Automatic annotation (TrEMBL):
<protein>
    <submittedName>
        <fullName>Glucose-1-dehydrogenase</fullName>
        <ecNumber>1.1.1.47</ecNumber>
    </submittedName>
</protein>
<dbReference type="Pfam" id="PF13561">
    <property type="entry name" value="adh_short_C2"/>
</dbReference>
<dbReference type="GO" id="GO:0047936">
    <property type="term" value="F:glucose 1-dehydrogenase [NAD(P)+] activity"/>
</dbReference>
<dbReference type="InterPro" id="IPR002347">
    <property type="entry name" value="SDR_fam"/>
</dbReference>
<dbReference type="InterPro" id="IPR036291">
    <property type="entry name" value="NAD(P)-bd_dom_sf"/>
</dbReference>
<dbReference type="InterPro" id="IPR020904">
    <property type="entry name" value="Sc_DH/Rdtase_CS"/>
</dbReference>
<keyword id="KW-0560">Oxidoreductase</keyword>
<comment type="similarity">
    <text>Belongs to the short-chain dehydrogenases/reductases (SDR) family.</text>
</comment>
Amino acid sequence: MYTELEGKTVIITGASTGLGKAMALRFGQEKANVVINYHSKEENVKEIIQEIAQNGGRAISQKGDVSKEEDIKALIQSAHESFGSVDIWVNNAGIENEVPSEKMTLENWKEVIDVNLTGTFLGCREAINYMLDHKIKGKIINISSVHEQIPWPHFVHYATSKGGVKLMTETLALEFAPKGIRINNIAPGAIETPINAVKFADPESRAAVQDLIPIGYIGKPEEIASVAAWLASNESSYVTGTTIFADGGMTKYPSFQGGNG
Ligand code: NAD
């Protein structure tokens, strides 16, 4: 637990499911004020707010599409009106779908880029402006992916978006370090969330993914939430412009294990 997070306000995008939900619950346990942005699965939100309240935190929700400027502005407005501050912003919302590149339509491409890349930019820009205006040495945490580094055929829009988030994070971190705003990425490997539900329900596909993970198991959302809490805490005070890979070793060339190569 990080006592300095108590009473801090955190906005998390795409927080009605998966990693966003786990981060909302974790920041709730830290007794932060949690602003849950959601786009779907509204039915989950009430439960998340209740659980946060039971743990002594406070939470509100705000529906919105991260790729729309007006929705991002409404999100920060609602956080400010409810809690009077925005100290931490987590750009978590993201989508993926499999399309061989030669068949990828402009619509397929834009859909993923708009949410994963443009949505992250809009969130960063809004958070930075708020933090500068209010002289807050805030923290921004972007959720990229191991695919900011590992190429992914059939998912060129996704890999491009996450590679873009990597350089966006590095560029913004450099630009705003003198103002005390720290900006980092978390790159999850394969984590048990709805984004992977169909793939992991098939035993063969699940086993194929598991073979790519040296640590031997598919990650849990809480294992990403704990990295987010650390990045938001004072314990990571000297960390900015970097990606923390939370991937069970997936990016460490597992095919070389056992002396291969
Ligand atoms: P998820 O599908 O449970 O979560 C994604 C969330 O984003 C959903 O709640 C969805 O409603 C929301 N969302 C989608 N479009 C949105 C929009 N336009 N505006 C606002 N919210 C929107 O999956 P997840 O695994 O929790 O994914 C969270 C993030 O983690 C994503 O950015 C994803 O790319 C990244 N990631 C996940 C994994 C993994 O294995 N689960 C691995 C690497 C990266």
